[in-house]
Amino acid sequence: MSQVHLGIWKDWRLHVIVFLIVVFAEFIGTHEFSVGPGVVLLLPMLYALLIGLGLYFTPAVKEKQSKNAEPLIVLGVTLLIAKIGVVIGPSLPQIIEAGPALLLQEFGNLGTILLALPLAVLLGLKRESIGMTHSVAREPNVGLIMDKYGFNSPEGRGVMAIYIFGTVFGAVFMGLIAGFLATLTPLHPLSFAMASGIGSGSMMAAASGSLIGSFPEFENDIIAFAGASNLLSLSTGLYMSMLIGLPLTEKMYQLMTRNKAGKGQS
Amino acid sequence: MLKNIQEWIILLSIFAVVSLAANWIGYDVMPLSALPGMLVLVVICLAGLIIQRALPYKIPSVAYIAIIGILASMPWMPGSSTVVAWTSEVQLLALTTPILAYAGIAIGRSWTDFVKLGWRTIVVAMFVLLGTFLGSALIAEVVLRFQGII
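Output (structure tokens, whole complex):
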């Protein structure tokens, strides 16, 4: 954000389009439907993302608008962070009390290795799976993999693939599953609130937004815990994957592919 | 620096106007009653952006912005109750709608990359996000229960 792209405010076409999208999305409002015992929440922000994406393929949005929109996401996230800050402030005593849970749930990011790596190997992906599953593949993790394996390595392609998916559909996906899992499983909404902070502003917003929609009685606690957890993830995420995530993924990958090779021989 | 500050003010104002509309239509808060809170948030953002530029450390501006927000609303800070009362009129979800609208327009350009990914990648990607989310929630649940918070 320090490098400001001067003159973006003059792109009235972009701002008017966004204004119309937002008005339209908010006008449709929040809708929910049940799938089994869980509830899926459709929030205005999800329509806004999909309408924006759709409009890119119409003459209404040109390449220029799409480029100018990018720094504005970052600016919007700063406003969101300011809002989260003023919700964290009054809840500070509670957050300090819940501190150990906040710190320890950062290790939950390793859940991605345990769940997704075996699946990737099972689907026949090779070393791509290391880049794909060592973390949630946000910017710092992409940097780490590129630094270690290079841009044109299988690991590099893997991390980029997940990065692209997360960029395009991460917020929608997190928004849809957060409320659903919180209503489906016996886990407490506050645990899911902490889990929402995975180190991406838009995914955190979508996931915690769905939680607020499903559990409005916990609104401020959800914002405060998700926000605090996201800030923690942003500052520790890189070290987490550098020191624990990536070495663990390498080890597990070697173990799993060795077993597979052994079976193939017998 | 001065040019940047002007640019930030104009862009944040545009963002504020769109969010106030979302706040009105989606959450029934009249723009006038949400305006003081929105101004407080814009000022916090500006302060964070300016501090980030003025100090030599390489810390992202969101870190400063979060800290300023927390400091301004801590219970033992004078005037914090006003800050909290005003900003509580600005719904979090009203801020996220414009962010994701800009995001939708921006990610259109990644669409061709996305189409090339193939179904295996998409399955793995969903499990990557699911794994983090469930893993963190499980640990948080155990620790929060152990502490007797939930």
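Chain B touches chain A through 97 residues (CB under 8 Å).
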